[in-house]
User: What shape does this take?
Amino acid sequence: MTYELINTAIKKYLEANSLNKVEELGLDRIFDPPLLGVAAVGDELFSQLKNPEIVGENHLLPQEWLLGAKSVLSYFLPFSDKVCQANRKKGLPAKEWLYGRVKGQQFNEALSKRIADLCEEYNGTAVVPAIDSRFCLSDELNSNWSERHVAYIAGLGTFSLSKSLITEKGAAGRFGSVITTLEIEPTSRCYQSPYEYCSFCGECLERCPSKAIKDEREQKIAGMERKVCQNYMNTKIRPRFKPFYGCGKCQTAVQCEQTKPL
Ligand code: SF4
Ligand code: SF4
Assistant: This one.
């Protein structure tokens, strides 16, 4: 199976699937076409994710998820302009964002299953860590499979002050990945360091309603405190917008979109 074949299948799936629309809001699409990256399981960066300063001991290698794994397919689904523009205002999340976050995640899961099925159609086996029964979070809210770190390895983008990953289509979107036994040519990483695409302008920090983003601009490292963000979501957003949730004010900062990769 080739990169082109998977990419074409993903784009077709995106166009045809009703989960990528929100009719009640007149939103003809939640996501624009995704970016796709491929990493070889032998990439040395996977073992570095076990370092407690990066993700942690609990982060599993691709081959720990799937015996005989050879490739990791990682993708970024960018929210459409309509969703991003609606969420530009500071304060509470826009309806478009809330629907996009929840319905969009249903679409994301369906897409990852479709990619896994495609691998099986080509005589491979596949695992989707995010929906696997072994997927879990540590007390520090670090998962045993970090989509953003995997996307970094697959060449999709670099980290930022707000702990998001900035891609060539901005930071507002959802990530997903599939591990497979099929051998697919890895994509290249067009960056040298983990924070290359973040300008450390501080716009995300100004926009964050919960003050979850610490000012680490001088150190040029990520400053988002996940527990503060989660507490805001659980106390201020979920009770008010149930069954929807989300915020994404940091991801919809204009500067993240303008910080295009070279
Ligand atoms: S708003 Fe600025 S500081 Fe924040 S993540 Fe985007 S580019 Fe980096
Ligand atoms: S999602 Fe919202 S609360 Fe959480 S860090 Fe981003 S802006 Fe702050």
Remarks:
- The pocket of iron/sulfur cluster (ligand 2) is lined by residues 162, 207-210, 212-213, 224, 229, 232, 247-250 (CB under 6 Å).
- The beta strands are 35-40, 71-78, 126-127, 157-159, 165-167, 173-180.
- The chain has one domain: 3-255.
